[in-house]
Design a protein that fits this description.
The chain is α+β, with helices and mostly antiparallel strands. The chain is about 65% helix and about 10% strand. The chain folds into 2 domains: about 1-130, no CATH class; about 240-390, Heat Shock Protein 90, CATH 3.30.565.
């Protein structure tokens, strides 16, 4: 391709010479420029193929610069020879070419130093990141390819910093949630093993140990499920799910827990029983999490209301919504996103609020369905809404 471009350029300049000075001038232009152009392109091709052996960008730039100077001087010398100009004219032509090339090299050198400085900043940042630092940035500003590369590196470092912070927080949270039941299990097991308790107390301790084991199992299961959801490893069985029937089954399953807490659970269902595209067991898992949270945070004699409704079309797709509203204390707007973060608790003093994974798992499930879940404004208490795509009409 480069040879074709060089040859085409020589032919175009020859045609221009023919228009201005005639056929002889065109011929002289072609036999002067074409060989120089072809040789220069061939040498440059060899340099490009062996650029790894040439060293850094400075060396490569110097080689290309020397090649440009050599071909310019060769072209000037050939024109002087074929045009039979005087020695006086030839001298000043060479001086002019050398001066123009010198200024060009100076300008390219200045530009190249700036580009090399940006590359050095990117390289230094990547080296620091490789050594474990996350507080570094390239500091490259402006536009162009190097600035875009630097922005991508900065974004990568920021993302790594956030991921490592989240990983450390996750490890700390898991360690905290594992330490309490494991410590209790160890103390109970030591007491039973040392025979310092009677049979009735031993049976009571065994029951407590079973409760702690169940809590540990639930935590491990939640962590495993959240990991699978985030990595997309779960298999989905999507179907048309009747929301009213699913809500009724879930509410009835949760009613004993609500009665034990003195909380009333009621349903407000859409008249025409809306459908959703969903994996029924996992959507029910979301409902269990939401209703369970609502019961936990609703005082005795309070109410939890589960509603189904059709939602306005979003992006040309019909949607349905499920709302779980309670009459508890509510969640401040500034904290509404925090509740979906794994192991995040708005009230760390509560020991009955689980590991803090329920809403994180619920969001992952809903988003995997192509829907969204959020805390909506409510006159009192908390309102959690889930929006899911509705099935496409049969005619579509």
């Amino acid at each position: 391709m480069r040879l074709l471009i060089a040859t085409a350029a020589a032919l175009a300049l020859s045609a221009l010479s023919a228009l201005v000075y005639g056929g002889h001038a065109a011929w002289l232009t072609l036999v002067t420029l074409a060989p120089i152009g072809v040789v220069t392109v061939l040498v440059a091709g060899v340099a490009v193929r062996r650029r790894a052996q040439l060293g850094g960008l400075r060396t490569q730039g110097a080689v290309i610069g020397a090649l440009i100077v050599a071909q310019a001087l060769a072209a000037a010398g050939l024109f002087v020879g074929v045009m039979f100009v005087s020695a006086h004219d030839a001298f000043f032509l060479v001086v002019l070419c050398l001066y123009a090339l010198l200024i060009g090299v100076l300008c390219l050198s200045a530009l190249g130093r700036g580009a090399l400085a940006d590359l050095a900043a990117v390289r230094g940042t990547l080296r620091a990141v490789g050594e474990g630092r996350r507080d570094v940035r390239t500091g490259v500003e402006g536009g162009g390819e190097l600035a875009e590369l630097a922005d991508a590196v900065d974004a990568m470092v920021q993302r790594l910093d956030g991921e490592e912070t989240a990983r450390r927080a996750l490890i700390a949270a898991v360690s905290h949630d594992l330490r309490t039941p494991i410590t209790s299990l160890r103390l109970l097991a030591d007491a039973v093993g040392d025979g310092v308790v009677d049979d009735a107390t031993a049976r009571e301790y065994a029951a407590r140990m079973g409760t702690h084991v169940q809590a540990l199992g639930a935590l491990i299961d939640d962590l495993f499920e959240l990991t699978q959801l985030e990595t997309g490893e779960l298999r989905w069985s999507m179907e048309q799910v009747a929301l009213d029937a699913l809500v009724q089954d879930t509410v009835e399953a949760m009613r004993p827990a609500a009665d034990a807490s003195g909380v009333a659970v009621r349903m407000v269902l859409e008249a025409d029983n809306p459908l959703a595209n969903a994996d029924a067991p996992r959507l029910q898992r979301v409902l269990f999490n939401l209703i369970q949270n609502a019961i936990r945070h609703t005082p005795p004699d309070g109410t939890v209301t589960v509603r189904t409704a059709r939602a306005a079309a979003d992006g040309g797709v019909d949607h349905v919504e499920i709302e779980v509203a309670d009459t508890g204390t509510g969640i401040p707007p500034a904290d509404r996103e925090r509740v979906f973060i794994p192991f995040e608790r708005l009230d760390p003093a509560r020991s009955d609020a689980g590991a803090g994974l329920g809403l994180a798992i619920s969001r992952a499930i809903v988003e995997a369905h192509g829907g969204r879940i959020w805390i909506a404004d409510a006159a009192a208490g908390t309102s959690v809404r889930v929006r899911l795509p509705a099935p496409m009409p049969q005619s579509a």
